[in-house]
Amino acid sequence: MNTKNLEKVIAILEKEVKQWQVPIITLIAQTKKDPYRVLIGTVLSLRTKDQVTAKACEKLFAIADTPEKMLKLSEKDIEKLIYPTGFYITKAKNIKIISQKL
Which of 2, 13, 57, 60 has its CA 20 to 30 A from that of 25? Predict the structure, then answer.
């Protein structure tokens, strides 16, 4: 690819990228700067649309935003807070395990 074509490609990409939405996990990382929230948010985001992930993160982190607070919740409580994320039962179990290890 010559320099002229590369410049055209870069110009197109710079224009197009402005239309893309920033993933919710990126927003969490940029605004909260909390590795725990990023980790748990990433777990929630697996196989789930960003809009659903955002709502689940908001509900969950309003109640438990640290490993210590998360451990005070039952798996059932976490399930209720993160529903309707995909595989919410498995995710609740994994969130408890992650929180215990941390």
Answer: 13
